Amino acid sequence: MEVKALLDRELMPLPALSCLALLSMAGAVGPGELCQMEMNQIKDRNQANCTRLGLSRVPSQLPKDTGILLLGCNHLVSVSTSSFQYLPMLVDLDLSHNGLKAFHAAPALPRLQELILSHNALGALPPLQGLPGLLHLGLAHNSIQDLAPGAFRSLGELQELDLRGNQLRRLPKEAFAGLAELRNLDLSNNSLEELPLGLLSELEALEGLRLSGNYLRTMPTGFFPEDRILHYVFLDKNPWHCNCSLAYLRDWITENEASVYYQEDGLDAVKVENDAESARCDSPAQYRGTPVLYFTQSCSKVGNGDVYVPETRPDDLPVLHTSVPSTTMATASSRCDSFLLFWIWCI
Asked: Judging by beta carbons within 10 Å of its beta carbon (0-12, 13-18, 19+), is residue 25 exposed, middle or buried?
């Protein structure tokens, strides 16, 4: 019995010591060591997946050769590029779904090509002067209300800009000045009431423009530059007012039917298709629900004014009874289960 009691006393502390050791080890693990490291086969770069770790600060113990860093769905309220200076190979950075209120691009990250700041709490466009090599910038679903003239001028190499789901009501003519390489611009699901003439004048490489889900009633004559062709334009879910002020857009759609697209979001998939009839009149009443392509009011110029010459609807023109609400706005839900870094463009 004495031998057994002695053995019990010697053996009992061992499990307790093991648990303490495990707890000590867990406490010593830094946030960077919790990130999943893997090779991104598409981009052929080392990727650190640090999503959903409850982080309140940027990890500081990642491998030096990390090229892609996913920090979505954490609690990073304020971030500075100084936190990433120890990652000289970093080219892609995802900070989406963090409740981020401030982003400081200083000191510079000259190698960074992709920055995703979508689904955060940014009330204004952050300064971006320290990111000269940026190609893709995601700012979707924040609370940005205004853009200053030349706001993106420091991003001369930028190719894709996602501003959907913000609170933009008006844009200065020079909002996108200096973006000669920009190919895709997404302004959908904002609160835009008008567009300035010349907004696209410096976007020489522009291929895709999304204007869906705004409050646009008209479009200035000559808005689309005549010296280039846009391949993908989304105009649906706007309360277009179909009178002589919209004759320009009607004629543009007629001449560019193959460039007008519509996106339908479903539970399982996103369907994008060519649909020149997707832009529809909201007013006046006789044209409500009619594709802008088909409204038949003819207009003539007398001096500097328009003379409205309403025409009778042709018998062969289908009467569409679908009503398009004046305030249709797409509502984006914050989903952290998918970490797609780009919005969908037909290429």
From this structure: exposed
pLDDT at 32: 60
Give the pLDDT confidence of 233-253 residue by residue, as tens digits.
999 999 999 999 999 999 999
Rounded to an integer, what is the distance from CA 10 to the centroid of its chain? 63
Q: What is the pLDDT of residues 118-141, one digit of tens each?
A: 999 999 999 999 999 999 999 999
pTM above 0.70, yes or no: yes
Q: Are strands 78-80 and 45-49 parallel, antiparallel or unpaired?
A: unpaired
DSSP 8-state code for residue 307: E
Contact 257, 279 (CB under 8 A): no
Tens of pLDDT, residues 171-216: 999 999 999 999 999 999 999 999 999 999 999 999 999 999 999 9
- Is residue 78 within 8 A of residue 102, CB to CB? The reply is yes
Contacts of 212 (CB under 8 A, 6+ apart): 188, 189, 234, 235, 236, 237, 238, 263, 330
Sorted by sequence, the CB contacts under 8 Å of residue 101 that are 6+ apart come out as: 77, 78, 120, 121, 122, 123
Helix runs in the chain, H state only = 2-11, 13-28, 31-34, 247-255
Contact 203, 185 (CB under 8 A): yes
